[in-house]
Design goal:
By secondary structure, the protein is of the alpha+beta class. Helices cover 46% and strands 19% of the residues. The N terminus is likely disordered.
């Protein structure tokens, strides 16, 4: 009962730690805004996300134009809001362009990163270097993905082999390859879990592989949800090691008893929950339903795929005493596998709806496209399984037919004393009684009698040929199952389609109400170098306000005799549209510029500094569609 209490406690702990959130965070707003030019230095830099995020000491870095860090203290949440991050800046910051590099961890355990810039006084060149690319496209990220796949494989072997022994054929527990398969599954799952626990810190913070052994970073890992789930998995694997050791001493699974089998079932369920508690199921809509569904999906995968590998080993190697896998055991596994695939399909449909969100997302997002490939692989698995199920049913049917006569009680044979010269009929009675007795199991079947015209009966059933066909098809199923497992592992590290849509919507809603562009120009002389700052509000289809300010090379305001702005949509062949800027005594402006289409527009800015000197510079701006 101690084992049952431990498993139940860990199960409740992992379930209780899950709260509602949106899978994969997205940056919804920043202060200062991306690209903003400020007159005075800000005191703080604040980021707002679409969901709660976690961060370390280096999650937010504000870098000066000389690539020096200007936030002396780590990030904090703003007023206790888990979806915010704020850093305080040093005082007396010099003018120029500053880079904000950030890397945080979403509620579902996946790291996300990005960067943006703002300027103080006037834009400038910057030496800041920010790592680009996906957070998973690093040495640590790739290693973490490999060990994640190894963990899934170990769970499948451990759960599938145990289920085959407990449910289908207890005598298989005495077969050396099956016992070895259980040990391999346990070792693979344990080793990969330890590796993921060590790599979790560098994976979240973009550290190097050597930093995996940093005690301080490991201490931070175990306090987070993913780290706690990995620790719980190791505790459960220690309990599994005790059960495996006991079963190795007495290979017959029947000795486990009802309590042992119940403990094994709870142990497998709790292991599955350690995934559900730290992956996509723990964040998003309907978390209370999604977590048990995800655990059930994972268990069904393990029972089916691990059971296939176990069956394949037994079909290639004889069982205890040289026995083949009994037809009854094949029938029980066929039923178990059919039920597992049905659970996989049912839970997979729910998870697909929850993570994809729309039919369109199947073809427009990475998650949706990968899911389509997985569905195609599952269809192939079901097709292959139909042949295996058909041949298994024939083997079970023939075995039941052969066992039918032997199940009836043998007729009692009575020895009757005969005198010499007794009638042959009396002796024949004894022979007839003997012929009614069942034939010996190893006795070959008598050939079928010829019918009229010398025709023969149906050909005899060849069990060996069916077993060979079954073995080949089980091999095909196992290979396809490994493919499904690989795709599943890829999906766990891919942003769900629904989250991608929510992130895009949040980014669109969080776009600044103004778009600021700073375009440098050079007239070829020292006195005629400067920049033009164009402010477009709201930067959407429809009526917009345009304001333009010209700065000298030292950042001061410059008065120019003329400033013209035209906009062109090259993809659709629209324009040029003249903004008709008017001099407002210090800046130029237009308040009725109408932009008819969204997309990337080219700005052509002509600056005339004297009666004869002028220059035209270009830049682009993305015009958003009408909101709502």
């Amino acid at each position: 009962m101690t084992v049952l209490a431990l498993v139940a406690s860990l199960f409740a702990l992992l379930l209780g730690g899950a709260g509602p959130a949106f899978a994969h965070a997205g940056l919804s707003g920043t202060d200062p805004a991306d690209g903003a030019v400020l007159k005075t230095e800000p005191r703080y830099v604040t980021l707002t996300f679409t969901e709660s995020v976690g961060f370390s000491d280096d999650s937010l870095r504000v870098l000066s134009p000389r690539n020096e860090r200007v936030n002396p203290r780590p990030a904090q949440h703003v007023d206790g809001k888990d979806d915010t991050a704020r850093v305080e800046l040093s005082g007396k910051l010099p003018q120029g362009t500053y880079t904000v590099a950030w890397r945080v961890v979403s509620a579902d355990g996946h790291p996300i990163s990005g960067a943006f810039v703002f300027s103080i006084g006037a834009p400038s060149e910057t030496a800041a270097v920010v790592a680009a690319g996906s957070p998973d496209d690093t040495a640590v990220g790739r290693l973490y993905g490999v060990f994640r796949y190894a963990a899934y494989s170990g769970l499948a072997l451990l759960v599938g082999a145990a289920a085959f022994v407990l449910v289908c054929w207890p005598a298989a527990g005495a077969v050396r390859p099956v016992r070895r398969l259980l040990v391999v599954g346990w070792v693979a799952l344990t080793a990969s879990t330890v590796a993921m626990l060590l790599l979790r810190g560098p994976y979240e913070t973009a550290g190097g592989v050597t930093s995996a052994f940093d005690p301080a970073r490991l201490g931070q890992t175990v306090t987070g949800r993913p780290g706690a789930a990995l620790i719980a998995r190791l505790v459960l694997l220690a309990v599994a090691a005790v059960l495996l050791r006991r079963s190795a001493r007495r290979p017959d699974a029947a000795v486990l008893g009802v309590r042992g089998r119940l403990a094994g079932a709870l142990l497998a369920a709790a292991l599955a929950v350690t995934w559900a508690g730290a992956e996509h199921a723990s964040a998003g809509i309907q978390v209370a339903l999604a977590m048990p569904v995800a655990a059930l999906h994972l268990l069904a995968m393990g029972v089916w795929l691990g059971g296939l590998v176990t069956l394949l080993l037994l079909l290639r190697r004889p069982g205890p005493g040289g026995r083949e896998v009994p037809a009854a055991a094949l029938g029980r596994f066929s039923t178990l596998a059919f039920g597992s695939v049905a659970v996989l399909v049912g839970t997979g449909v729910y998870q697909s709806w929850r993570q994809v969100g729309s039919w369109e997302a199947l073809s427009t997002t990475s998650y949706g496209k990968t899911l389509v490939v997985k569905v195609a692989a599952v269809v192939l698995v079901v097709w292959a399984a139909s042949f295996s199920r058909r041949w298994t049913a024939r083997l079970v049917h023939e075995a039941a037919s052969a066992a039918g006569p032997s199940a009836a009680p043998a007729p009692e044979r009575v020895r009757v004393a005969q005198t010499v010269g007794a009638p042959a009929a009396a002796a024949g009675a004894d022979l007839d009684a003997a012929s009614d007795a069942p034939a010996a199991p190893d006795a070959p079947a008598a050939p079928a009698a010829g019918g009229p015209g010398g025709e023969t009966g149906p050909p005899p059933f060849e069990a060996a040929a069916y077993r060979r066909s079954l073995r080949r098809m089980v091999t095909v199923e196992a290979v396809l199952g490994v493919l499904v497992l690989v795709i599943t592992t890829v999906l766990t590290g891919t942003q769900p389609s629904r989250a991608a849509g929510e992130r895009a919507a949040a980014a669109s809603a969080g776009e600044p109400r103004v778009k600021v562009l700073t375009v440098p120009f050079d007239m070829g002389t020292a006195n005629h170098q400067g920049t033009v700052q164009i402010t477009l509000a709201p930067g959407r289809v429809g009526e917009n306000t345009v304001e333009a300010v010209v700065y000298t090379s030292d950042g001061g305001l410059a008065a120019v005799p003329e400033l013209r702005l035209t906009l062109t949509q090259d993809e659709l062949g629209i324009g040029p549209l003249d903004a008709k800027l008017k001099d407002q005594k210090g800046y130029w402006a237009a308040y009725d510029l109408r932009l008819p289409m969204p997309g990337v527009w080219t700005l052509n800015i002509t600056v005339r500094t004297t009666d004869i000197d002028q220059v035209t510079v270009r830049d682009t701006v993305r015009v958003a569609p009408v909101a709502g």
